[in-house]
Amino acid sequence: AVFALDVYDDAGEPAKSREIAEKIASQGNVVAAIGTWSERGTEQAAEILERAQIPMIVPTRAQTFASPRKWSFSLGYSRDDEIRFLANYVRNVSGDVLASIISNEPRFNASAELFQKTYERFGAPIKHRWNFDATSSDPQARMLEIAKEVKAAPDSGTLYLAMDPGEAARL
User: Fold this and answer.
1) 63, 96, 69: which is closest to 81 by C-alpha?
2) How far is CA 117 from CA 82, 110, 137, in A?
3) CA distances from 159 to 90, 99, 128, 140 (A)
């Protein structure tokens, strides 16, 4: 049997992931796809490959798909598993009895809620919770305000940042 491996780069762009998946699905002789690294790209590719019944192996953490996927498989833990692990680690391994959350609402509300629920299950409440909306007219102003409030609150404890990595870096 002849085996060929085609490599594509979606550059982390969901639209490009979708375009590549459409190309793969239209070939008719593809037995499986591996990738993509981008969460949003994975959702786009999975939707196309699911319809074509082409198995997709996701090399990163499991995705929380908008709808159930029969043809997508992950080599890692789900985002929810990672959040629960982190909350458990902060409270029970690091021994931090104080933790606070900064969250990009509404996009990361579910992540923040899961961290809080898991952390509080171990008998320690979340001390502070700050929210901002990255789609608002001036999210930077709110992030600056939050940074000042965190600095002024000496009892914030460990900070869980429920947001995109770029937002976390700016904060």
Assistant:
1) 63
2) 14, 10, 30
3) 10, 6, 9, 18
Q: What are phi and psi of 86, to 5 degrees?
A: -65, -45
Q: How confident is the model at residue 100 (pLDDT cuts 50, 70, 90)?
A: very high
- Residue 93's pLDDT band (cuts 50, 70, 90): very high
The full DSSP string for 102-167 is: EEETTTTHHHHHHHHHHHHHTT--EEEEEEE-TTSS-HHHHHHHHHHHHHH-TT--EEEEES-HHH
The Cβ of residue 168 has, within 10 Å, a number of other Cβ atoms equal to: 14
Written as six digits, the tokens of 141 are 């102003």
- The whole-angstrom separation of Cα 123 and Cα 97 is 9
Amino acid at 137: S
Tell me if 162 sits within 8 A of 132, measured CB to CB: no
Amino acid sitting at position 47: E
> pTM surpassing 0.85?
no
Nearest CA among 35, 32, 8 for reference residue 19: 8
Read off the tokens for 61: 């953490």
Rounded CA separation 23/105 (Å): 35
Encode pLDDT of 104-135 as tens digits: 988 899 999 999 999 999 999 999 999 999 88
